[in-house]
């Protein structure tokens, strides 16, 4: 990921900052007739103007400092696909004692009727609030009277007690923007580390001193008044196989470094990892829980009974925690209460589950550590200095001999040492109670593999009857096990599967190792496949690509500025052997292929043949890397295009005399 760090000191050139908010409702013919070809001819909607401002102010009622953020945007809707841009969702955050608030919401839709613009003002009753989680609240509204060609406009004010991160500003979104401006007022006593992330560059950045913008205890404080401008911003298009969009969208981020107190002292918020290590090791909700071997001391002999090695012990402890404590679907790097309570209630958040695992491993005499990380949907963490708010998850690490294993006991369907895909995100920080913390790569410990083997016979009436056996390991097996167990029984799963399959009819089935997650999952199906209607057995077409056909290219952008992150390397193999009822000639067939990605990144092999009255196909699709860089994107796109094009070709069989 490309990151541009623009660390701003608190002294500025004496420049005139021209940025100012635009008047609400000032719709012009230029807005209405805006030609999207100037920016993106495929756009369904475009932001014409966007302005935001953020400042730190003193609340009149409480006297406490708060961040005041105002957002104002005007959007041109081109077609019905663009109507979704009128569905506005504003997240706010809260905890036990503090919360963010939304006020002064204004929203209108403007349509050109006759020779004038008609404004439809949104009714305040259209605004509603959803409590998404314990810590998140969503304010939602939809603008009224939408038509193709409408211009919508809305604004609001947000007040937040969170001064640490100031207020992030996203220049880039899912639709293009003509201009986006952000004006911030940062009091001179506050020093923020400021970073511009993403691949788009600022069009302009201006700064000046704003005199006496804040007064604390009668002391006037000057502010740094900074204006960030970006113009002609392309849409950020999300594709599959990526981590959090926030890693790659062009945006300004702020993180508080230090505060100069009025008494002359300084409070530093940018701590060292040495500081963080000391704090975490003493936290009641983290370090103290890691030490609680007493919770499991009496249980360990029974848990590890029959274990002949440290690895066997670790697996026994891991399986015990998976069964005893159910994850409540909440993330967290801190225990909600304590691991004893989690064990007694048999439920807890991520940290409860994995801190219990760490304590139990330690009680078994094993070397266990904690790893804090940020999940894929949460973004990557700052490596320059510790920012604890970047981390939202905790897993275990156990060291056995010269090997170490990363463990997460929240997912019963994952084998020992394989993390959930949500955890495979750059690096995590290992927390050891006796040694300094350090970074560790978060990578999948297993390749995801799938193998299909089909053996059958073709009947004289144009059907194939045979056995299809599938073997899966790694994330492929995890996904399949999860899907099967979402049904009331394997029989119901197969029944639903049979309903979804259009060409294949399942006659009988057998699923093995469903609960044995350390082994490959095996599915065996007796199937019937109709090739032709039997009216012309002398000559007919037959497609060998009836198992996991690749019909859609997952990569459709002309350029992708962020990596393709598959999470793990993968290997898929398909073997088909069908005995024909009579002697046939193979007149046409898909072209045999052997294509590869650059730098041994992967390969696709295909071979079809007719030998001894048996038509066969062997296909291998391998991706040897978990991550492909943006410069490799077009190779992936072309790789898939060739495969898809070749899979459109069928075999032509003709009966011999």
Automatic annotation (TrEMBL):
SUPFAM superfamilies, A to Z: Cysteine proteinases
The protein, known as: Transglutaminase-like superfamily protein
Entry coiled-coil feature ranges: none
Species annotation: Pedobacter suwonensis
Keywords from the UniProt entry: Signal
Database matches in Pfam families: Transglut_core
Signal peptide segment: 1-19
InterPro entries, alphabetized: Papain-like_cys_pep_sf (IPR038765), Transglutaminase-like (IPR002931)
Presence of the UniProt keyword DNA-binding in the record: no
Keyword Hydrolase: no
